[in-house]
Known about the structure:
alpha/beta, Rossmann fold
Amino acid sequence: MVERLVVARLGQRGDGIAESLEGPIYVPGTLPGETVEVEAVPGQPDRRRLLKVEKSSAQRIVPICRHFGICGGCALQHLDAETYHAWKRNLVATALRQAGIETELDDLIDAHGAGRRRVVFHARRGNHDVLEVGFSAARAHHLIAIDRCPVLAKSLDAALPTAWAIAEVLDAGRKPLDIQVTATDQGLDVDIRGSGPLNASPMTALARVAQQYNLARLTRHGELIAQARPPTLRMGAATVPLPPGAFLQATEEGEVVLARLVVDACAMARRVADLFAGVGPFALRLAAQARVFACDDDGAAIAALKRAAAGGAGLKPVEAERRDLFKTPLTPAELNRFDAVVFDPPRQGAQAQAQALAQSGVPLVVAVSCNSGTLARDIRQLIDGGYRLLSVVPVDQFRYSAHVETVARLAK
Length: 412
């Protein structure tokens, strides 16, 4: 049955929201003020599928990608830039307000730069046994096969044809393959997940793909298949040898902006702890001005950080330790050795570590997060422990999505 709705506002995931007697109704692809025709989504009583926009918003623009609306990667390509930036900044403000934190936010920094420098493609055989390579559909379990993705950096131009070639070699079945591609200083670094054990024939064929597309490295679950050049990235004065499938900030510009905010915040610190440090995008830059203790549960990342620090010109000492900060956070006594502590946890936040920080006497804390909700929770713990919130800077390196990075600075 076709319904007509008037969209009242944008939700936190970028869906348009219409009000009804039964509660809010979510309609992806719509904007506030629009009158739309929709139909029900089976099994999801609070959701509707957009059929037609009868009255368009003045903020509606033409999406840049023909896959928009069916691919699950982007939420807001149809919204003009000024309104989009205000909405994204408001995501952070709303999360803080819901945690009882009233503060002024800095303007949103656009850190999309050249575009995403890493991507995970999925591959499987879909309907009629046809091979598909692309991204998950919006709020669905099937894949959307794509021929291009305009949010990717030009350095990933060969990523999609490479992924298609890998999927053809491995003859992806009903269970998706994950093909992670990272743009490095030496070219593309590719790691395959989900293939299961491989015998000599597909391994040889994959090595040919690596040669054909001039890959820096090709691995399967971290196991080396082919390597023409060890992939590295420059971070400050150091060169980082990347582990297979290494986590990085989504864009190069995003890493630079976040690191600048962190380093500037810690300008007066002489001893800094970088928690959830990864391969060291903050630690290796902080080491130009301070002694650094870096900590992360990823052993390969910590090993890479150590190697990079050892070869970095003019860096102060960097101590790096593998440690699960969710299970064994640094204690207040351990934290009190530092003039500043930086933490940049995964999306689930750093609740245990924030609790220990709240009980410490560390003069300065810099919190970085890609999840406004868990960041607000962690900041609330710090404020309750006596910290003052000095600044909050939203950073957008996830253009068109509902994700936003934030850098918050607190002092005691």
